[in-house]
Specification:
There is one protein chain. By secondary structure, this protein is of the alpha/beta class. Helices cover 28% and strands 26% of the residues.
Length: 403
């Protein structure tokens, strides 16, 4: 009787998990294990690029790769996980909305993360975001529509709530995007709002001078030390009582792991991520692995843990996929390890800043860093071709991932 590895999610971690499992099965010549992947669509959304223009194009088809390496794609959304019974309940997408149950011998949870939306009055109704393709497309359509509105300071103002990685990249793009719509001489106003007392609080002191220089030269402003208290159709009110009139408010403040992690009877961190061992098996469970943004995993022996980033998701996926198959087949696991940590922050037309190490030592700035960022965003994070040998070779968990 054949066995089944079930991967939930077709993001960076889920896709690479399925591919890495297929690689090990191919390597040892096993044909009695089915690899199934459940997702709404057989496509990889290039989420790290959704702050850019034309977000609707930020997708990569996966069906041909799945066919080439023998991964079974199941279109649907998993709504329930029963670890004790080793089965999930899923509902179909599109024409066929049938509910059904699907058993597994090993499960890989790779359902990613979602933008954190606190209970702030008016946030859901009036704020835009760049979390998912549809969200970013909605923002783009809104910006295009500003040209049809009467000229006003509020029309020309964008507030970006959150001065972290996504907030900075989004804000850096906004002056140029607004002028494309409103005219090259338009008096535009882009303001970042951050509860912390520094721009890029999680990015550390190393790249901050470069970031603030770039934002200043781009004309981006920031207000620190007070978060958003309320959002309405005409702007925002800060916790300190200050009012900013703005036709566009973009929320970028933080992410949380998929809510499906709550159905796994195991310990989670403050972001909802499941604690995993070095092989990415969920601690305390025998048949469940977690990877990508739903996994809290040690990257090294120095006390560093994975971030919710493409850089870590790709390597986590390769490791989880290899190890879940190795576990099922009695093969040797390859413990997850990713001691090299880098960041490459896009700073819009100004350029970018590239850092290395957890202390974020600046190595490249400006145009040179921008060229690297462009290569990462347009080449390195995309899936390989549908050539079977090439795709399986790229799924080796020992492959170095820098993006």
């Amino acid at each position: 009787m054949s066995k089944r590895i079930l991967v939930i999610g077709a993001g960076f971690a889920g896709f690479w998990s399925a591919l890495a499992s297929a690689r090990l099965l191919d390597k040892v010549g096993r044909t009695d294990v089915e690899i199934s992947l459940v997702a709404p669509e057989p496509e990889l959304h290039i989420r790290p690029r959704l702050y850019e223009q034309n977000p609707g194009a930020m997708k990569a088809p996966l069906q041909e790769i799945f066919k080439a390496v023998g991964i079974k794609f199941i279109q649907g959304v998993v709504e329930r996980i029963d670890v004790a019974s080793q089965e999930v309940e899923l509902v179909g997408v599109g024409v066929d909305t049938t509910r059904r149950k699907l058993g597994y011998d090993r499960l890989v949870l790779a359902t990613g993360s979602r933008l954190f939306r606190p209970q702030i009055p008016g946030l859901d109704q009036h704020a835009f975001n760049v979390d998912q393709v549809a969200d970013a497309a909605q923002l783009e359509a809104h910006i295009a529509s500003l040209a049809s509105r009467p000229a006003s300071a509020a029309r020309n103002t964008v507030v970006v709530a959150g001065a972290g990685f996504t907030g900075i990249e989004t804000a850096a793009e906004m002056p140029a995007r607004l002028r494309e719509v409103l005219g090259k001489d338009a008096d535009v106003n882009v303001i970042m709002v951050e509860r912390n007392t520094e721009v890029g609080p999680d990015l550390g002191a190393g790249p901050r001078p470069v970031i603030t220089q770039a934002l200043t030269e781009l004309g981006v402003k920031w207000k620190l030390g007070s978060g958003v208290a309320a959002v309405d159709a005409n702007g925002i009110t800060l916790e300190n009582g200050e009012r900013i009139e703005a036709a566009t408010v973009i929320w970028t403040a933080g992410a949380r792991a998929s809510m499906l992690t709550a159905q796994i009877p195991a310990e989670r961190d403050n972001f909802g991520r499941l604690h995993v061992d070095r092989n990415l098996k969920v601690k305390g469970l025998d048949t469940v692995y977690a990877t990508g943004d739903v996994a809290c995993a040690a990257t090294d022996d120095e006390g560093n843990y994975t971030m919710m980033s493409c850089q870590h998701a790709m390597a986590l996926g390769r490791s989880a996929g290899h190890n879940v198959a190795a576990d099922l087949l009695g093969e040797t696991p390859i413990p997850y390890s990713q001691p090299k940590y880098v960041t490459c922050l896009d700073l819009g037309p100004w350029g970018a800043v590239y850092t290395e190490g957890w202390d974020r030592q600046v190595k490249l700035v400006g145009a040179e860093a921008k060229a690297l960022k462009t290569q990462i965003n347009t080449e390195w994070i995309y899936p390989p071709s549908a050539d079977r040998a090439e795709a399986l070779a790229w799924a080796d968990p020992r492959r170095v991932v820098v993006a």
